[in-house]
Amino acid sequence: MTVALIDNGSLEPAATRNLRVVAAELSAAIDVPVHPVSWKHSDRIPLAALDGDPAGTTLAPFVRSRLAAGERQFIFAPFFISAQGAIGSALRHELETLQREHAATPFDFTFVTGLADAGVIAQIVAARVRETIAIASLERPPVLVVDHGGPSPASAALRNRLADEARAILGDEVSSVTAVSMEGGDHAHNHPLLAEALAARFAASAEAASDVVVALLFLSPGRHAGPGGDIARICGAAEAAAPTLRCHLTDLVGTHPLAAPALAAALRDTLSTHQAPTLA
Known about the structure:
Blueprint: E1 2-7, H1 13-30, E2 34-38, H2 59-68, E3 73-78, H3 86-101, E4 108-111, H4 115-118, H5 121-136, E5 142-147, H6 153-170, E6 176-181, H7 194-204, E7 210-216, H8 230-241, E8 245-249, H9 259-271
Parallel strand pairs: 1-2, 1-3, 3-4, 5-6, 5-7, 7-8
Helix pairs in contact: 1-9, 5-6, 7-8
């Protein structure tokens, strides 16, 4: 049996580094090797950008190499916000395609429950907001919980639910919590977009300094949520257009200490129903 932690993949080295850190934490927690695997992209990261370590492993080559070694059973821990969203569906479709391609060496795969099902994401978001409030000495700021935005209404519904849960946890510590998306304005379920919400915030209080906490509903740094990424640029453009607006970005969900233990618990539950895994 092969166990892997799988994310969407990124060309940003920091995303692969974080995936490897969390996979190592899971390996130690469940006493079974957990392979860090990306769906796409990470195999194109230059060697030098990963301090001489090999480039990231992507899904199809990883599965094929394990099949060649005699593996027939895979367990994947999803390292993304929604296992039921577009990414989760695409991953399952690719694995089913690989099953058809390798009919002569049939294999099975299982996805364990993700962080959203573990009930920890809202707790992490609230903790990240509190950290940001403390660092910036803010007084009951409004909070924008931002996800990527995409074609799946299920992902938007999850974003909205997590924002509601974070609002209940934070209570009077914040003035409001609003769910927004980074992009995807052609789909109604993604609105308001982050840029729209920031513009509306300034329009409502243009005469006074306005601090906004932008809570990142992202697991790893990358071109969207990393330093100088898309979200930082959106916030910078909003601040340039509204000089009294100040955006305070939280740290990420996937780097919080609660994330790895929740995934480890889900892996233990799944492993308990399967044969003892082969250590490899």
